[in-house]
Amino acid sequence: MAAKPSIPKGTRDFSPVEMAKRNYIFNTIRDVYHLYGFQQIETPSMEMLSTLMGKYGDEGDKLLFKIQNSGNYFSELSDEELLSRDAAKLASKFCEKGLRYDLTVPFARYVVMHRDEITFPFKRYQIQPVWRADRPQRGRYREFYQCDADVVGSDSLLNEVELMQIVDTVFTRFGIRVCIKINNRKILTGIAEIIGEADKIVDITVAIDKLDKIGLENVNKELAEKGISDEAIAKLQPIILLKGTNAEKLSILKEVLATSEVGLKGVEESEFILHMFGTLRAPHTPDLFMDDMINHIELDLTLARGLNYYTGAIFEVKALDVQIGSITGGGRYDNLTGVFGMPGVSGVGISFGADRIFDVLNQLELYPKEAVNGTQLLFVNFGDKEAAYSLPILSQARLAGIRAEIFPDSSKMKKQMSYANAKNIPFVAIVGENEMNEGKVTLKNMETGEQTLVSADELIAAIQ
């Protein structure tokens, strides 16, 4: 007996209904990106490993899917290398390519390669799958789509404000209540300075970024394991657990970071972004930091986003009504194109996690009915003569924008109606001798069961 087929862990098949839902997500995000002047590009699924390695930190590098070279690559390896069983070293010998981990690093590579064709500032968006060799779990997949928007070639903080507006608009359209968390890597750098551990900034940010997942005790344990002193860890506690409104947090940070120039710069940037976003969203609201919006915005000092390339503002979005990881993230990266030989190009971007948004919309049952409906009208097929009569009306309906089809075989009525029910088709057109004699069609509403004899124009009007 043939083995039962399967798919890799962390991947999924999507049915026609699920694809309709996913396209609703993609189209909604795409429409908002267009509103803000972003243009679409695409990059290959695979990149050279030299492009990907070293951009995501040690943990990110471990999650890269590497692609084995074609040909007899073993012939160039020594017996000693083969017997070493050193997976990382062997992979470096016969893997030159890898599946992209995100869309930002390939985008930076794209900018450098196409710099002579690009008009700066360059506002691009990209909706494509990415791959991570992560441990699959609820809301975490090995293959998933990202919907990125980035602006490169501009240092203006208005770009950060605009990206937050995009986030707010997208989730308002979806009907998902969210908390938009904001922090700044400059603030985190300043914190590392004042606790006397400036050279441990990466270790600190990687650890505190896990606070929601592993808790404060385990974060402190990880910090200690990384060689951070007990005194520094103690100084860090009241800062990362800072409470209050956004305005209160900023006020306290100005005092705490008074001796750190870079830290104060991060506070200044965060204050500008929060102020401008609040002003644009509700110009008549006294509290410009907008702590009580439908979509909340929160300055969260535990937000670190473990990717090494962020240098300024960082963002993360959590759904308020569903327990799931972040559904959008992003930030400012000043140095990314520099590693590809093009220094001095600043960028900032966001990425919507389409697969997690898909799960949230499913759990909250927020898909509009029209987003998941496929065919609107089915013509029943009683035979060649009836089909020939129906086809011109079918074409007329399609020209009017109605999604319509005819059952291809002259099967029993029960089978054709079962087909309509299985596909949730709301209207069925029935054509028999009587209808053809009168030059009309019987239109059945599958929800109410009501049947009406109508002309082709009346049929179209009824469905529209």
Keyphrases for this structure?
alpha+beta; five-stranded mixed β-sheet; globular; 43% helix; 464 residues
How would you characterize this protein structure?
- By secondary structure, the chain is of the alpha+beta class.
- 43% of the residues lie in helices and 18% in strands.
- Strands 1-5-6-11-10-9-7-8 form an eight-stranded mixed sheet. Strands 13-12-14-15-16 form a five-stranded mixed sheet. A three-stranded antiparallel sheet has the order 2-4-3.
- Strand 9 and strand 10 form a beta hairpin.
- The two termini are 51 Å apart.
- The relative contact order is 0.12.
- About 2% of the residues have low confidence.
Write the layout of secondary structure elements.
Blueprint (H helix, E strand, L loop, with lengths): L15 H20 L3 E2 L5 E3 H4 L4 H6 L3 E3 L10 H5 L3 H8 E5 L4 H10 L8 E10 L11 E10 L5 H17 L3 E7 H10 L6 H8 L2 H15 L4 H11 L5 H11 L4 H21 L14 E4 L13 E7 L8 E6 L13 E7 H11 L4 H4 L4 E3 L4 H16 L4 E3 L6 H10 L4 E4 L2 H6 L2 E5 L5 E4 L1 H8 L1
Parallel strand pairs: 1-5, 7-8, 12-13, 12-14
Antiparallel strand pairs: 2-4, 3-4, 5-6, 6-11, 7-9, 9-10, 10-11, 14-15, 15-16
Helix pairs in contact: 1-7, 1-14, 7-13, 8-13, 9-10, 12-13
Task: Categorize the overall geometry.
Answer: globular
User: Quick one: how many beta strands?
Assistant: 16
State the helicity in percent bands: 40-55%
Kindly report how far apart the N and C termini lie: 51 Å
Helix tally?
Answer: 19
In terms of quaternary structure, the protein is single chain
